[in-house]
Design a protein that fits this description.
about 450 residues, alpha+beta, oxygen-dependent coproporphyrinogen oxidase, seven-stranded antiparallel beta sheet, 14 helices, 9 strands, about 35% helix, coproporphyrinogen oxidase activity, porphyrin biosynthesis, heme biosynthesis, transmembrane helix, EC 1.3.3.3
C-alpha cells in the first residue's frame, strides 16, 4: 500500500506533521476495534477503506484535448450546469503514514510501498458490492440488490464512487475534528433521494457538509430548455425525457480563518431518448477559498489537482483551471470567490470509460489536496479582526452561491428538491459591512488583490 505524508521544514509545520502522524497511527489502532456497518459513530477499519491506495502513481489514460476550456471539439460553448440540486457528497480516505519527509517551501509526497498494478486496481474497483457498501456512511440510495444486478453499468459504478468519496472524506474530517456527522437520508417522491452528512459547531469546523444525491425521473421543460441552450440535442418520447443524475458535493467552513473553505462536486448525468439511446456526461471540480493568501497552501492545492489531471491529459489542468476562475466569479463585485482549482462540465469524450477514469482521479484528490492544509493551520492563533474578515469573505461566498451558482438556482427551481441539502453550502455565520474596503498594505488588501486578479499557482 502506498502512504503519504506532507510537512514543512519549519518547526511549526513539523510539529503539526507529527500530530498528524500520531492521529493517523491512533486511527490505525482503532481500526482493529469492532465496528458496525452504516453507523455514523463507528469508523470502518482504515485498511479496508476504498481509496487507501489513492496516492500511488499509476499510468493514466490520455484524453483527447478539447483545446480551450469551455469549448467542445466543434468550438461550441460548453457552459455546464449542475443539473441536480446541491445534493452530493464528498470524500476522505484515512491514510496510514509510515514516515516523515521534509523539504523547504512546500508539501512533499512520499510513496512508502510499491505501486498497485493495473490488475490489482481492477480487482479492487470491481470488488463485492456488499462489502464495499459496508464502509459507507449509510446504505446507498439505490437498493444493494439492484446495484449488484447492474454492477457493470456506469450509473452503478458512479453511485459507488460518490458513496465511497462521501464516506472517506467524512471520516477524515471526523478524525481531525473529533466530532461526528449527522447522517440524514431523504427521499424524492419523483424518484431517488440522497444522503446528507452534516457536522455543525465542531472543534475545527463550524459547518461541514458532505452530500450524495441519486435522482431520476423525467426532465422538466425548464431543465430541458437549459440543456438545449448548451447545445444538447434532446429527442424525447411524448414530450418526456427520462433521466438519472447523481453526484457527491461538499462545502467545508472552518472556524479558524487561517484554514481555507473548500468545495468540490463530481456528478454524472444520463438521458434516455425516444429511440432508447442514451446521452451522458460528467461534470465537477474542486476549488479553494482561503481568507488569507498562503503561497505554500496554494501551490500544494493546485499541484495536487494538476498531478491528477496530468495523468489523463496535459491540457486538462490549464483548461479547467481557467474555466474554474471564470465560473467562480462574482461579477457584481469584480472578484473571484477564491483562488480556484479546476472546474469542468458536459464532459462526454473521448469515451465513457476514460471520462469516468478522469472523474475518479479528481474525486480521489479531495483528501490529499485539503487535509494537509487543515493540519498545518490547526493551531494557528487568530485575532478578532481576522475573524471579522473571515465573516466578510463568507458573505461573498453566500452572494455567489445564491446569485450565480447554477446548481443552487436549478435546485431551487426544480420540483421535489430538498431545500436543506441545496442550502447546505451556506456558512453557519457571515457578515455584511456597508462599504467595506480593507486598508492598503494589509493582508486583507493582499487577499482582495489576488481575488481581483487571478494568478497561476503552479
Amino acid at each position: 500500500m502506498a502512504a503519504v505524508v506532507f510537512c514543512s521544514v519549519n518547526k511549526a509545520a513539523q510539529t503539526t506533521a507529527k500530530r498528524c502522524l500520531a492521529a493517523q497511527l491512533k486511527g490505525l489502532a482503532r481500526a482493529r476495534e469492532p465496528h458496525s456497518p452504516f453507523s455514523s459513530t463507528h469508523s470502518p477499519p482504515l485498511t479496508s477503506l476504498p481509496g487507501s491506495r489513492w496516492f500511488s502513481r499509476g499510468t493514466g489514460v490520455r484524453f483527447m484535448s478539447h483545446g480551450t476550456a469551455g469549448k467542445s471539439a466543434s468550438g461550441r460553448s460548453r457552459r455546464g450546469t449542475a443539473v441536480f440540486s446541491g445534493a452530493a457528497a464528498v470524500t476522505a480516505a484515512a491514510v496510514a503514514v509510515a514516515g516523515l519527509v521534509a523539504n523547504a517551501g512546500h508539501f512533499q509526497r512520499a510513496e512508502m510501498a510499491t505501486r498497485v498494478s493495473p490488475v490489482e486496481k481492477e480487482q479492487e474497483e470491481e470488488g463485492d458490492i456488499l462489502e464495499r457498501c459496508r464502509t459507507f456512511m449509510s446504505p446507498p440510495v439505490t437498493d444493494i440488490s439492484a446495484l449488484q444486478e447492474s454492477k457493470g453499468e456506469m450509473r452503478t459504478r458512479m453511485e459507488m464512487l460518490v458513496m465511497e468519496t462521501q464516506a472517506e472524506f467524512c471520516r477524515a474530517l471526523q478524525e481531525v475534528d473529533g466530532g461526528t456527522f449527522k447522517v440524514d437520508r431523504w427521499n424524492r417522491k419523483e424518484g431517488g433521494g440522497g444522503i446528507s452528512c452534516v457536522m455543525q459547531d465542531g472543534k475545527v469546523f463550524e459547518k461541514a457538509g458532505v452530500n450524495v444525491s441519486v435522482v431520476f425521473g423525467n426532465l422538466t421543460e425548464e431543465a430541458a430548455r437549459q440543456m438545449r441552450s448548451r447545445g444538447k440535442v434532446l429527442k424525447g418520447k411524448d414530450g418526456k425525457l427520462p433521466f438519472v443524475a447523481m453526484g457527491v458535493s461538499s462545502v467545508i467552513h472552518p472556524k479558524n480563518p487561517h484554514i481555507p473553505t473548500v468545495h468540490f462536486n463530481y456528478r454524472y448525468f444520463e438521458i434516455e431518448e425516444e429511440d432508447g439511446s442514451k446521452q451522458w456526461w460528467f461534470g465537477g471540480g474542486t476549488d479553494l477559498t482561503p481568507i488569507y493568501v498562503n503561497e505554500e497552501d496554494a501551490f500544494h492545492f493546485h499541484n495536487t489537482l494538476k498531478e491528477a489531471c496530468d495523468k489523463h491529459h496535459s491540457q486538462y489542468y490549464p483548461d479547467f483551471k481557467k474555466w474554474c476562475d471564470r465560473y467562480f466569479y462574482i461579477r457584481h463585485r469584480g472578484e473571484t470567490r477564491g483562488i480556484g482549482g479546476i472546474f469542468f462540465d458536459d464532459l462526454d469524450s473521448p469515451s465513457q470509460e476514460e471520462a469516468f477514469s478522469f472523474v475518479k482521479s479528481c474525486a480521489k484528490t479531495v483528501v490529499p489536496c485539503y487535509l494537509p492544509i487543515v493540519y498545518k493551520h490547526l493551531d494557528d492563533p487568530f485575532t478578532p479582526k481576522e475573524k471579522d474578515w473571515q465573516q466578510v469573505r463568507r458573505g461573498r461566498y453566500v452572494e455567489f452561491n445564491l446569485v450565480y451558482d447554477r446548481g443552487v438556482k436549478f435546485g431551487l427551481a426544480t420540483p421535489g428538491s430538498r431545500i436543506e441539502s441545496i442550502l447546505m453550502s451556506l456558512p453557519l455565520t457571515a457578515r455584511w459591512e456597508y462599504m467595506h474596503e480593507p486598508a492598503k498594505g494589509t493582508q486583507e488588501a493582499t487577499m482582495l488583490e489576488v481575488l481581483r486578479n487571478p494568478r497561476e499557482w503552479v
